[in-house]
Write a structure and sequence with these properties.
There is one protein chain. This protein has a 4-stranded antiparallel β-sheet with strand order 2-3-1-4. It is flat and about 45 Å long. It has a single domain, classed as 2-Layer Sandwich (Alpha-Beta Plaits). It has 3 helices and 4 strands, in the order βαββααβ. The protein has 98 residues and is of the alpha+beta class. It starts with a strand and ends in a 5-residue tail after the last strand. Helix 1 (14-30) runs antiparallel to helix 3.
Length: 98
């Protein structure tokens, strides 16, 4: 069953975050992940959810998503993101039709 990493990111250091943004795609791909949403325009329809830069990654499983986040190859990038943003990040198990 797929799993999704959902991040709401407020960039506080654009130059530092650009280094993160440039380096992270191959690490995501190496763990079977892919971008579904990477920033982009938003249109609020209901409520007051305070979204900044929304990112949604899809992984083949919750285990793959957790392995990405805890991996040694992501660790220095995670440290860079934490230093250059304020973020809320969750892992969500996907839905299996049927």
């Amino acid at each position: 069953m797929p799993a999704y990493l959902i991040a709401n990111i407020e960039v506080t250091d654009p130059e530092g975050f650009e280094r993160y943004r440039a380096a992270v795609p191959p690490v995501i791909a190496a763990h079977g992940g892919r971008y579904l949403v990477r920033g982009g325009a938003q249109t609020a329809l209901e409520g007051a959810l305070a979204l900044k830069r929304l990112v949604i990654l899809e992984f083949p499983s919750m285990a793959a998503a957790q392995a990405f986040y805890a991996s040694p190859d992501y660790a220095p990038l995670l440290a860079l993101r934490l230093a250059t943003t304020r973020s809320d990040v969750v892992l969500v198990e996907g839905h299996a039709p049927g």
